[in-house]
């Protein structure tokens, strides 16, 4: 048995955890940038609430509320420029994955200089950056505990900045914030977390610790995501916890096929990241299960327990995922969403952009196998 685990931060999970932001930020600096999106935080009064909490702790606060969904390099550059003007000491990210991704990238470039392009993988960030406090508002990304910042580069390709210094120094997970999530968004983000759990389990760097995190996240999501979509607060909280666990898992073993093939659906068809993952996930899991039959057997026991239905073979596992998608009102085919089947060859060709993800699967899929996965996602036969 062998593994390495590093987590430099404090994680607090409780209702009204965001009320602690001033206490923790005041230990990290004097000038704070609140990094958030353009609508949610202001619409529900969180900007004023968080800004007030920080100011009550004696901090000077600048609000950068211009983060866009799937933040771009230019979005990060805008944030860096503002941070430089304000002499920022600490970044507070409030929002979904986009806000946390943006805050991490802004801190990297602001702290270390140069341009955001300089830090994209395969570069690994090793130098310390200005600290980040992460407060997630969706139950899916797990970014509050990860070393990743996912961005869209200047050529409209999903890229990533990676490094342990990106892990937030403080993660405040406040389940009460989830009450604003729509059923649709709850399902999509829940499947993002489920994708993290499945992909980390099959990742090449998986180990006994990631398996622990992955299996528990899978169990919780299968048992609670449908009720979370229907608005049950207890179930939303459980999925929030599962999302964090899956974040710990991908921090060690990373993502692979569902993310690698889902990214193109987001950049070129504007599908929500979690929805894009969901559409690929059953067939990505099928591919990995056939490559790793021993891992499939252990996974089948977890899914059987979680669903109350015996999973006897790989097709039964695929059916379990498709059934969960239907229970959460998530489309199960690209065709349902109007993605043109005639674009199949472009989608397959674009997969080379995401070599990092595909190479982390038990066996890197060939272009023909990538095509087969997409065809199944279209619910087409060859």
Described by strand count, sense and barrel closure, the largest sheet is:
6 strands, parallel
Our measurement of the CA-to-CA distance between the termini, rounded to an integer number of angstroms, reads 42 Å
Strand fraction: 5-15%
Number of continuous helical runs: 15
CATH architecture of the largest domain: Up-down Bundle
Number of domains: 2
The proportion of residues forming helix, as a percent range, comes to 40-55%
The CATH superfamily of the largest domain appears as: Dehydroquinate synthase-like - alpha domain
The run of helices and strands is EHEHHEHEHEEEEHHHHHHHHHH
What is the residue-mean pLDDT, rounded to a whole number?
A: 97
> In angstroms, what is the radius of gyration?
20 Å
């Amino acid at each position: 048995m062998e593994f390495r685990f590093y987590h430099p931060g404090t994680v607090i999970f409780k209702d009204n955890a965001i009320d602690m932001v001033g206490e923790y930020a005041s230990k990290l600096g004097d000038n704070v940038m609140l990094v958030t999106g353009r609508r949610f935080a202001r619409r529900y009064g969180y900007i004023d609430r968080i800004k007030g909490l920080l100011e009550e702790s004696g901090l000077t606060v600048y609000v950068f509320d211009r983060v866009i969904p799937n933040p771009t390099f230019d979005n990060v550059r805008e944030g860096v420029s503002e941070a430089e003007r304000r002499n920022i000491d600490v970044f507070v990210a409030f929002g979904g994955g986009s806000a946390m991704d943006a805050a991490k990238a802004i801190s990297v470039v602001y702290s270390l200089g140069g341009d955001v392009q300089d830090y994209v993988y395969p570069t690994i960030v090793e130098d310390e950056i200005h600290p980040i406090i992460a407060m997630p508002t969706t139950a899916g990304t797990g970014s509050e505990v990860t070393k990743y910042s996912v961005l869209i580069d200047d050529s409209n390709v999903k890229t990533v900045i990676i490094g342990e210094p990106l892990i937030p120094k403080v993660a405040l997970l406040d389940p009460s914030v989830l009450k604003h999530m729509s059923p649709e968004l709850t399902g999509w983000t829940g499947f993002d977390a489920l994708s993290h759990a499945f992909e980390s389990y099959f990742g090449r760097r998986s180990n006994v610790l990631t398996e622990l995190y992955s299996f528990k996240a899978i169990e919780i999501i299968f048992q609670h995501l449908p009720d979370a979509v229907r608005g049950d607060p207890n179930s939303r909280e459980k999925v929030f916890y599962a999302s964090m666990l899956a974040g710990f898992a991908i921090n060690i073993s990373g993502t692979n096929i569902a993310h690698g093939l889902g990214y193109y659906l987001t950049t070129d068809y504007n599908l929500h990241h979690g929805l894009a993952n969901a559409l690929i996930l059953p067939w990505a899991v099928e591919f990995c299960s056939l490559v790793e039959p021993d891992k499939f057997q252990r996974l089948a026991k977890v899914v059987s327990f979680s669903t109350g239905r015996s999973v006897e073979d790989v097709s039964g596992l695929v059916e379990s995922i498709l059934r969960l998608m239907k229970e959460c009102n998530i489309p199960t085919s690209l065709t349902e969403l109007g993605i043109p089947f005639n674009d199949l060859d472009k989608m397959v060709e674009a997969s080379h952009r995401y070599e990092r993800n595909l190479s982390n699967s038990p066996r890197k899929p060939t272009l023909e196998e990538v095509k087969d996965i997409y065809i199944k996602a279209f619910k087409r036969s060859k």
